[in-house]
Amino acid sequence: SLDSYMNNFYTLILIMGVVFELPLVFWLLSSLGLIYRSFFRKYRKQAVVGSMVLAAIITPSGDPFSLIIVTIPLYMLWEISAFVVKKDPPEEIEEEDLPTVFE
Prior knowledge:
Layout: H1 2-19, H2 22-31, H3 37-42, H4 44-58, H5 64-84
């Protein structure tokens, strides 16, 4: 029915609108120093699987074509986020490099 179709349509639009904010969220987390570029390299494989799981939840039908069509933009958002986050973790300062204090 039209009511069911519109309900699915609005739900899909709402979820995709929230998901498309991910690069902004990751940029903010990076600005706060909570995540770094190495985070995206380390969890790239999990991002592919997570994108597929999220796409399976989002898509109203169960066909593989719809799953792939939704998975690709989700994963691309992950890669865009990795590109936007340009901050590397701070380097560890060894004790030898610290200035000495005499009492």
